[in-house]
Amino acid sequence: MTASSGTSDPASASVRKRPSPWILGSWQDLLLFVGTPALILPAFWITQTQLSIAEISLYVAAFGALGHHLPGMMRAYGDRDLFRRFRIRFVVAPVLIVGASAYCAREGLTVLASWPSSGACGTG
To answer: Across-strand partners of 81?
Structure first.
């Protein structure tokens, strides 16, 4: 609608931009999706001469967990309204988890992978 007449402008309504199929752009997306494996595979082959498959798997799992959990933590702790709504959970839960992990480490116990649902610490 134009401000002076209050009518719709048919020319602007018919011209609509199609959304781009690219995330950043064609070359940037190609670099991210093709270039990343092209860098990771040679790095894996070189690292395989220095570390065992179990050690490499541990590093991959750690970085994968970081990539999985970081966006959720950024949202939870970065969104003021969400943090204000669940403040006690977002403050107390990490303190309890770190405390339980420190206790288990001090006692020489390992924390089970399914710890919250099946029990606290197991002997390791």
So the answer is: none
